[in-house]
Structures are given as structure tokens and as C-alpha cells.
Amino acid sequence: MLRVAVDFDGTIVENEYPAMGKPLLFAFETLKELQKRGFVLILWTVRTGKLLDEAVELCKQNGVEFYAINSNHPEEVFDTDTPRKLDVDVFIDDRNLGGFPGWDKVFQTLCPNEPVQIAQKKVLSRYKRKGFIRRLLGI
Ligand SMILES: [Mg+2]
Question: Is the pLDDT at 43 greater than 80, yes or no?
């Protein structure tokens, strides 16, 4: 199954580093849908210590727990022979060439055979119920 490294600031939340930004639209919904499909998610962030704990906790509160954090495996021990680059299939990062494409695009790219974008649909129907779309459009 695909291993995916996911950046935090600017990717899962708006980049307010070292403060905590607001979650990006569809971020957690998409990550949860990817996990349901067996994708292995690794958090890949510059955060350490307390700032890292806050990020991990926010993800947990939103239903996303990572297989590993800043490492290939939970129990990985780093030494001089351990590459610093993660051994993953895909990196999701707002500093990619071309910038961050958005979580809808991430889902479409990683799950090209999905007939519907389940995560997005769920969120949109929630917003619709709240009249969010109507207010947004001013109708
Ligand atoms: Mg970033």
C-alpha cells in the first residue's frame, strides 16, 4: 500500500507556524478517507517538542492518527547511516513545486478510480445543511 508523507503547517492547517493555523478545507476528511483505503500516513513536519505535540493532538482530535511521525517506522532509531529523507511513495507538502494543489486534488490523484469524492461530499452536505453555501453565495 502507498506510503504518504504529509506536511503539517500550510498543508493540514493554514501556515501560522509556530502558532496553530486553522485546518485547511477537506484536510482531515481526506486523510481519514485515505486511511480507510489503507494508505499509510506519516506526519512530516519541522515541528518538535511541544509544538509537535500540539499538532499531533489536533490531528488526533480530528480523527487522524499517523503511523509514524518524522520517521519511517514508529520505532526507527536514527544514526549516521539512516537517510534523513523518508522512504515514502508520495509527499504532500505546500512547498512542492507548483504549491499545494488542495485536498480535493490530493484525493483525486491518489484515488483516481473513486466514482465520487466521498470526503468532499460529506463536508459539502454538512455545510449545505447549515446554510453555509447560501450565505456564501448571498442567496
Ligand atoms: Mg509546510
Answer: yes
pTM: 0.84
CA dihedral 20, 26, 28, 34 (to 10 degrees): -140
Q: How confident is the model at residue 95 (pLDDT cuts 50, 70, 90)?
A: very high
The percent of the chain in helix, strand and coil, each rounded to the nearest 5, is 35, 10, 55
Cα–Cα dist 79/76, whole Å = 10
User: What is the rounded CA–CA span in Å between residue 12 and residue 3?
Assistant: 17
CA of 44 to the centre of ligand 1 (A): 9
CA distance 136 to 139: 8
Q: How far is the CA of 61 from the centre of ligand 1 (A)?
A: 20
The H-or-E segment that residue 49 falls in is helix 49-61
The CATH homologous superfamily to which domain 3-114 belongs is HAD superfamily/HAD-like (3.40.50.1000)
Q: Residue 13 C-alpha to ligand 1 middle, in angstroms?
A: 9
d(CA 133, CA 125): 10
Task: Give domain limits for the chain.
Answer: 3-114
